[in-house]
Amino acid sequence: MNQTIETILQHRSIRKFTAEPMSEQLRNTILDCAIAASSSTFIQCVSIIRVTEHDKRVLLAEYAGGQEYVASAAEFFVFCVDFNRHQQICPEAKLGFAEQTLIGAVDAALMAQNGLLAAESLGLGGVYIGGLRNNPDKVASLLSLPKHVLPLFGLCLGYPAQSPDVKPRLPRSLIVHENSYAPLDREKLASYDQHIREYYRNRTGGSKNMSWSEQISGTLNKEARPFMKQFIEGQGFSLK
């Protein structure tokens, strides 16, 4: 096992940061690593909004559901699918296809993960902020995002002021299928559920007693931002 693999396997979401700022050189290294990620058809349809104005950070923290670390992290980036740049280059570009939405979402995720892994390898920590999609219209307005630019998620980065345990992932046997899709192994799922229940008990001092199955049931038994379809289409995505 090498240092790269150790960094990947030790990933934890960090939600408390010190007040230490990030140097320009370090920030640029992380951004360069993000930009080096794979790009479908080399279309490079991602833009990153670096938010440095405190008032905007405070509003974004509010829009994301009161996640105060959006305002306190050393750096905060918003990852966006961006075909506006392409339209400026090629005004006759055929946009609005669902495939382009998928390409942009995949490329943005690859880029962000590259950046986060680079940051973690350099002693920093971070957390993704999908909560920006609670109020995508307000985020787009605040950041002056034109049509054909879609804000997907944010990324807080900074020096960790906490060291949480690694959250156990689903075992490989429940994720990796060979040659064809396999039915769910309920026995292995039950074992994982117990593992997660113990993890939450230890993490919260016994105040949270929940399995993974119970957690996803609670999440998937309610609406999942039903307004997103209208917003996505309003930004010129997934129209056809």
TrEMBL record:
SUPFAM superfamilies to which the protein is assigned, alphabetical: FMN-dependent nitroreductase-like
Give a yes or no for keyword Ligase in this entry: no
Query: Keywords in UniProt for this one?
Result: Flavoprotein, FMN, NADP, Oxidoreductase
Keyword Protein biosynthesis listed: no
Its domain of life reads Bacteria
According to the entry, every stretch annotated as the Nitroreductase domain falls at: 8-159
Quote the InterPro entries the UniProt record gives.
Answer: Flavin_OxRdtase_Frp, Nitroreductase, Nitroreductase-like
Q: Name one Pfam family in it.
A: Nitroreductase
**Family membership noted in the UniProt record:** Belongs to the flavin oxidoreductase frp family.
Q: Which PANTHER family does UniProt cross-reference here? A: OXYGEN-INSENSITIVE NADPH NITROREDUCTASE (PTHR43425)
Could you identify this protein by its name? Oxygen-insensitive NADPH nitroreductase
Its gene is: nfsA
